[in-house]
């Protein structure tokens, strides 16, 4: 179950946007927070040697790509719900 602050935000989103769009809105917030945290990690975690020296590790780059793709799908679903309702 969600911790009380997240449960309250979910209730607010569901009240504002409806059940499904409210759920997706909370997921969008979580994905945005995850992207921000991983983005911070890329600042401090860099490859030290080789052709990718000074760049974020490839696994971190892949995680950011996956999060961005997931966020895009959630955004698309929210827009479809908005235009249908």
Give an account of the 3D structure.
There is one protein chain. The chain has 85 residues and is mainly alpha-helical. The protein has one domain (4-84). The protein is built from three helices and no strands. The chain has helices spanning 4-17, 19-44, 58-84. The protein starts with a helix and ends with a helix.
Query: Span between N and C termini?
Result: 28 Å
Radius of gyration: 17 Å
Structural class: mainly alpha
pLDDT < 50 runs, ≥5 residues:
none
Largest sheet: none
Count of folded domains? 1
Beta percentage is under 5%
Q: What is the typical, i.e. mean, pLDDT?
A: 92
Shape: elongated
Summarize the amount of helix as a percent range.
over 70%
How many separate helices?
Answer: 3
The total beta strand count reads 0
Helix and strand element order:
HHH
**Oligomeric status of the shown chains?**
single chain
Tags for this model:
mainly alpha, 3 helices, 85 residues, 79% helix, elongated
């Amino acid at each position: 179950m969600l911790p009380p602050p997240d449960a309250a935000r979910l209730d607010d989103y569901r009240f504002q946007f409806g059940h499904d769009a409210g759920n997706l809105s909370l997921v969008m917030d979580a994905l945005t927070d995850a992207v921000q945290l991983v983005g911070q990690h890329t600042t401090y975690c860099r490859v030290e040697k080789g052709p990718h020296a000074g760049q974020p590790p490839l696994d971190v780059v892949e995680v950011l790509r996956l999060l961005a793709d997931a966020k895009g799908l959630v955004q698309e679903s929210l827009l479809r719900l908005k235009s249908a309702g």
